[in-house]
Amino acid sequence: MNTQVRTALVSTAGHCKVACGFCFRADRAHGFLDTATYARTLSRLKEAGVEGVCLSGGEPTHHPRLRQLLRLAHQFGMSVSMVTSARTVAEVTALSQTAHLLANVTVSADSQGAMLLGRTTRTAASGIDTLRAVSTDSKILHITCWDLSDGECEELDGLVSEAKVEIQFSPVVLDERALRREGKSVQDYLVRQHLDADLLDRHFNLSGRYRAYLNELRDLQLPPAGGERWSCRSATAYVSADGRIRRCPYGQASVSVNAPRAAIRYFLTAPAQDRVTPDCAAICRPSAASDERSASCVAQA
After folding, report:
1. Distance of alpha carbon 296 from its chain centroid, rounded?
2. Which of 94, 134, 226, 229 has the fewest beta carbons closer than 10 A?
């Protein structure tokens, strides 16, 4: 099955200071996306029918030419959004000065249990403070969830209601190595995901798509005997900070933005060869399995 690529997730920087313990970023390196490479990427994506890009990281507000990146996307007639962990004065200033050029801003945060698990400090309250500082029409707080409580959910609901922002949820996704490091079995990990979903449903009225997404993750973690992982069906391509285009951030197949136009167009329009894994399923949700009130790209910064 072939899925038309409509959007692209663009890594603007290869490094990130947050360094979440459960981070599923495919690329980790130093340096920033070159603006000439980015402009060429936008041109090739536009030719292939891509309508919008989402800037991610590392941390996109660290890019020294962030405003130029946003304006370039507009020059190609593409909408542009951002997913960020901006918290410092410099990061929030860079975001607030360019937010009017963004269709939406998603600020990443972690539940208390996720902060403990991932050794992060991205609180929901600090994420709300960042969103208050920006002037884009669509503001989304994205919460990575682990080991939730009723009290925490009530606090979250109060925060987003007062700030009048949307909220989006994702479960922590751990690979086999991370599970061993944390001393958790796959079964216990999956049970925790569903318990958290029960709490979220009680406080935020989740659609059935969120549970469908959890079931997909379960099938990836515990595939049936003889079962084969399904092919990538995401409508979002991925562009690394070094200028490689993939259909999946974790995919083996890629094409350089410096390749001939025909080669890039064929790569983006031909059926994807990559198979879905738990890591890429955390980024790409073909079933749109997020909360009804969310409407942005789902990748975390």
Report:
1. 9
2. 226
Yes or no: say if 169 and 290 are a contact pair by the CB < 8 Å rule.
yes
From CA 237, how far away is CA 1, in angstroms rounded? 16
* Beta strand 138-145 pairing with 166-171: parallel
d(CA 267, CA 107): 31
The answer to whether 173 and 282 have CB atoms below 8 angstroms apart is yes
Q: How many Cβ atoms sit within 10 Å of the Cβ of residue 91? A: 18
Query: Comparing C-alpha atoms, which of 114, 140, 136, 113 is closest to residue 127?
Result: 140
Report the C-alpha gap between 299 and 248 in whole angstroms. Answer: 12
One pLDDT digit (tens) per residue for the chain, 301 residues: 456 788 999 999 865 555 554 555 556 566 789 999 999 999 999 998 999 999 987 789 999 999 999 999 999 999 999 999 999 999 999 999 999 999 999 999 999 999 998 888 999 999 999 999 999 989 999 999 999 999 999 999 999 999 999 999 988 887 777 778 888 888 888 889 889 999 999 999 887 888 887 877 777 666 665 556 656 667 788 898 888 998 877 778 899 999 999 999 988 888 777 666 655 555 555 434 333 333 334 444 3
- pTM, 2 dp: 0.85
